[in-house]
Amino acid sequence: MIKALGAKLYAAWSYKKNQKWINRPLETQEKLLQYLIKKGKETHFGKEHQLQEVTDLITFKKNIPIRDYEGLKNYIDRVLDGEANVLWPGRPLYYAKSSGTTSGAKYIPITKESMPQHIRAAREALLNYIYETGNTAMVEGKHIFVQGSPVLEDKKGVALGRLSGIVAHYVPSYLQKNRMPSWETNCIEDWETKVDTIVNETHKENMTIIGGIPSWVQMYFERLTSKTGKKVGDLFPNFSLFVYGGVNFEPYRGVFDKLIGRTLDSVELYPASEGFFAYQDLQKSKGLLLLLDHGIYYEFVVATTFYDDAPTVHSLAEVELGINYVMIISTTAGLWRYNIGDTVQFTSTFPFRVSVSGRLKHFISAFGEHVIVSEVEQALKQALDSEKEAVRIREFTVAPQIAPKEGLPYHEWFIEFDTPPANLERFAAKIDLALQAKNIYYKDLIEGKVLRTLLIRQVGKEGFKMYMKSIGKLGGQNKVPKVADNRNIADKLEGFVIKNK
Fold first, then answer.
1. 3-class secondary-structure state, position 286
2. How many CB atoms neighbour CB 224 within 10 A?
3. pLDDT tens-digit profile of 179-238?
4. ∠ Cα 409 410 411 (to 5°)
5. Which end of the chain lies in a sparser environment, N or C, as judged by fewer CB atoms within 10 Å?
6. Cβ atoms 1, 137 nearer than 8 A
């Protein structure tokens, strides 16, 4: 009772404190921009870009071009070599290692000023949930976030690891006894061994909060069920909140409801190595509150214009609802006008809330259709909702089939079902019609006989898991891209497709 009362009071204090910047969004961002300029002007980067002459957003844009990781790599390499005051004063506290660039691994600096913001945002997300719902029962039980290893390497005096592993070092003392799994288990590198060990440690505990990337939490739930013969909700009767990030939860929701045995509250987070950008602040809204007072200055470029010679860059004051924007950030970790590769759409402008619509490089436009992740996910959800009998999906990805053996080209959907539809062709037609309604270019190509309607290839049980294992990306923060403009993934998945379907 004391802990629950304390949580309510703390949540109310946190909520009231955040209203100050939520209600003054533009003023908050302007103040942050001036702070970034002040700190950055004495760095090597700042001197090379004349930050001492920058007084406003106009000159900020003029002096600093938009770059991605490759564009900043020369500076980051200097930081990695041990040089100080390159992108931000001093040296970083950590390097967060992630993958996905043309040159291999990315090493994102995390500084003494940016690290607390990662922790603060995660804490505020949970406190906001408590304030909104009044649910404090969860603080009495055990918590687990299925994550990467906290074992860190040393890189010339700076600790290096996965973001989730770094964050594991910052669990506050008052939560340590509630934290699962044990430190030793969290350090296990082999993912399947780690999940089995987590199951052994947790299946008799009073778990109340469980979090992680949905696909990997799903594996944990399935192994719990296999070991105990019980639904997760029966095994953990006080389990009341699922916290997730990294991918859209909706395609997984049906499988989770089946595994748990009931529908839970959930809170979506939007963290990345580069910063913690947003969290879901309302249970009845899927929009994520954009964090404007957490060391990140935001700019936005309309995604369809991003590769133009001189695309217009919009400040927060200029954004509109429903438009697909590339998000550009400048941060207290020394990332200056940095393109993280994500696209977002605004669902509200007071307060500013976003939904993650995909990745700038994750789309299908083999024929000019420019189908993006959010359109694919929404079309799939619409088809799932229309089925009379429950259809549940474990994982999926979509790629173009440009050169079929016969007939017109098409979009090829690789889907691993937990519960397949009674009629696969009818289900595919529902997805296709929904996608046509969301993307006029795709509809025109179908009606113009440039493309035929989509085809579903049914992936066998654990096919995606075996694929991820085969490329050394099983577990942790690794995710299957939902769409691709090439067949790099699709061709490898051919070996896991159920034949004669």
1. coil
2. 22
3. 999 999 999 988 889 999 999 999 999 999 999 988 888 889 999 999 999 999 999 999
4. 145
5. N
6. no
